[in-house]
UniProtKB/TrEMBL annotation:
Source species: Actinidia chinensis var. chinensis
Domain Extradiol ring-cleavage dioxygenase class III enzyme subunit B as annotated: residue spans: 26-266
Keywords tagged on the record: Dioxygenase, Metal-binding, Oxidoreductase, Zinc
Xref: PANTHER family: 4,5-DOPA DIOXYGENASE EXTRADIOL-LIKE PROTEIN
Protein name: 4,5-DOPA dioxygenase
Domain of life: Eukaryota
GO molecular function: ferrous iron binding; oxidoreductase activity, acting on single donors with incorporation of molecular oxygen, incorporation of two atoms of oxygen; zinc ion binding
Cofactor field: Zn(2+)
Pfam families noted in UniProt: LigB
Family, as annotated: Belongs to the DODA-type extradiol aromatic ring-opening dioxygenase family.
Length: 270
């Protein structure tokens, strides 16, 4: 009997440009996703995307057959509101996620039967899977919980990797508020450089406990992440790859002089 192929898990930015999807520095990386990043892996049966832009008090999955495109942002040109990413929903996956979480001790897991995909999901996916032919389920993050909660959410979902599900965390290695943005990019803020370098070293060295407790041990943690919602998707992706997961930096660029677009693959294959 053949062993099932274990899918890698990923952490990516959404890096949404205020001018055009084509102008973001992550565009070439996302465009070559299927040809260069997931080459050798089977086409996913479904995608479980953990988005920084869906914050709830308890873990919640969207249980829909057809995903609507949510335009949940301000300050972008009007044409951005016309973008649609009509990926099918993944209601069976959503219920499987709920089942796995509850079996692992997460007592309350909600179903949202109306929510579609926010820009943390559809913006990268429209470049990675432009055909919109892979079913997508979203999972929320909880600002009221800590890093261990989100890492353990990932651990609970690890078996999905053997079921053909691609688990992606969409957030940001750094997430400075807009007043820190530098027009035209500019030199990267020293605090952003230090936090980003620390995160890379911790992940590539396998120091998962440090990453889970980043707020206590990382330099400039509260500056790089005033709130944790953009960091928590990384922990879900990391946890779902297993305790022996190896991290690989698969893309790196900067935006606005403070936003790290570092992207990571987490693999736990023999």
């Amino acid at each position: 009997m053949e062993m099932p192929i274990m899918m890698d898990t990923f952490f990516i930015p959404h890096a949404m440009s205020r001018t055009s999807p084509e102008s973001t520095s992550t565009r070439p990386f996302f465009r070559k996703w299927k040809e260069e990043v997931v080459v050798g892996l089977p086409k996913p049966k479904a995608i479980l995307l953990v988005s920084a832009h869906w914050v709830t008090s308890d873990p919640t999955v969207n249980v829909v057959h057809h995903n609507q495109t949510i335009h949940d942002y301000e300050g972008f040109p009007p044409f951005m509101a016309e973008i649609k990413y009509p990926a099918p929903g993944a209601p069976l996956l959503a219920m499987r996620v709920k089942e796995l979480l509850m079996e692992s001790g997460f007592e309350t897991v909600h179903e949202d039967r109306t929510r579609g995909l926010d820009h943390g999901a559809w913006f990268p996916l429209m470049l990675m899977y432009p055909e919109a032919d892979v079913p997508v389920c979203e999972l929320s993050v909880q600002l009221s919980k800590d890093g261990a909660h989100h890492y353990n959410m990932g651990k609970a979902l690890a078996s999905l990797r053997a079921e053909g599900v691609l688990i992606i965390g969409s957030g940001g290695a750094t997430n400075y508020p807009p007043p820190n943005y530098l027009p035209g990019g500019g030199p990267v803020l020293p605090s952003a450089l230090e936090f980003d370098a620390w995160l890379k070293d911790a992940l590539l060295s396998g120091r998962h406990e440090d990453v889970i407790c980043y707020e206590k041990v990382a330099p400039h943690a509260k500056i790089a992440h005033p709130e944790a919602e953009h960091f928590y998707p990384l922990l879900v992706a990391l946890g779902s790859a297993g305790e022996a997961a190896k991290a690989e930096l698969i893309h790196h660029s900067w935006g606005a002089g403070c936003l790290s677009y570092a992207s990571y693959r987490f693999s736990n294959n023999p």
